[in-house]
Amino acid sequence: MNDAVATLAQDLRGWARQLGFADAGVAHLELGDDLSRLQRWLTLGYHGSMAYMQRHAELRADPRRLHAGTLSVISVRLPYWPDAADADTVLADRSRAYISRYALGRDYHRVLRARLLRLGRRLEQAIRPHGYRVFADSAPVLEKALARNAGLGWIGKHSLVIQRDEGSWFFLGELFTDLLLPADDAAAVPDGCGRCSACMRKCPTGAIVAPYTVDARRCISYLTIEHHGSIPETLRPLMGNRIFGCDDCQLACPWNRQAQPSRDPDFAPRHGLDAAQLLDLWQWDEAQWLHRTEGMPLRRLDYGRWLRNLAVALGNAPPSTQVRTALQTRAEHADPVVREHVAWALARHQGAGCP
């Protein structure tokens, strides 16, 4: 390895921060133990209906199979915690919709990818043209394991990466390159969870079934985003007003007490969605939904699942004539899944004595 490459890793963090990343590191590529844990998780069925997790399991463990010639992986952190309505206050107001704070602004895939490409070009300027490929939650990459290997934090009991000074409110991205770079020391970042189990206790549905293990089938993020079809009835009352994702495990984590709001305008809340009224969102027709969610992570849903999630939240909302009347407007919706969840919500309000 020549001197230029040997000193390159020292410059990476500076370049990354110029692009808005909080940090960057070079990961070692030994992921065998992580693959074994993933395979056990899949065997237990904790992936639910996410069949793609099983299809690409082996691919995740070898970065060279994702990008031929890969010798190093640069992992980056991008903070997203927005300057938004207080999360706990919104969660406590069952007339409002709670949307996971990562999803209130611009689609992070686009932001990460654009900045990683610029980082790849910066490397070219410093060393030489190189073969590289960027990933932003867009391919079968064990990104949390790579971030840990790059010294960016440890994987917490809620299964997310935690950084001692900034918590866990950040996105991860990767740049696979055929440059041979010295890896950072992952051992320099010890597990800081210790005996704490705050995230496990706070999970509304008990989805964190063991330290470092999440059963996606019970996870509200999975149920509201990844899951298609009917949401199990036993879990619906536990979802409260969460219509897209869930942040409870992170809100409970003591390490997030030090997290500061991101100043990145890409992640600023749009359309008042950080504290929107459920009834207002329920009134959106499909054209409005498409317009107002354009360029946002909310587009992971289709309009039918958007209504399904809102129907559950309305079923958990304080009983009122207004809520019942609004639900009845979609009682005969063309989508059978929407109809089912509206019927459930109406039955909840009828049982609560709403006229």
* Structural class by helix and strand composition: alpha+beta
Globally, the shape reads elongated
Rounded mean pLDDT is 93
β-strand amount: 5-15%
Radius of gyration using CA atoms only? 22 Å
The figure for the number of domains is 2
Can you tell me the residue ranges where pLDDT is under 50 for at least 5 consecutive residues? none
How many strand units?
10
* Element pattern in H and E: HEHHHHEHEHEHEEEHEEHEHHHHHH
Helix content: 25-40%
Span between termini:
76 Å
Walk across the major sheet and give the strand order.
1-2-7-4
Summarize the structure.
The protein has 355 residues and is of the alpha+beta class. It is 39% helix and 11% strand.
Can you describe what's shown?
The protein has 355 residues and is an alpha+beta fold. It folds into 2 domains: 168 residues, no CATH class; 154 residues, no CATH class. The chain has a 4-stranded antiparallel β-sheet with strand order 1-2-7-4, with helices on both faces. Strand 5 and strand 6 form a beta hairpin. Helix 15 runs antiparallel to helix 16. The N and C termini lie far apart (76 Å). The model has no long low-confidence stretch (mean pLDDT 93).
Overview features:
2 domains, two-stranded parallel ribbon, 10 strands, alpha+beta
Strand-helix topology:
Blueprint: H1 3-18, E1 23-27, H2 32-43, H3 51-55, H4 57-60, H5 63-66, E2 72-79, H6 87-92, E3 98-99, H7 108-126, E4 132-135, H8 143-149, E5 154-155, E6 161-162, E7 170-177, H9 198-202, E8 208-210, E9 213-214, H10 220-226, E10 242-244, H11 248-252, H12 278-282, H13 286-292, H14 303-315, H15 321-328, H16 336-351
Parallel strand pairs: 3-10
Antiparallel strand pairs: 1-2, 2-7, 4-7, 5-6, 8-9
Helix pairs in contact: 1-7, 14-16, 15-16
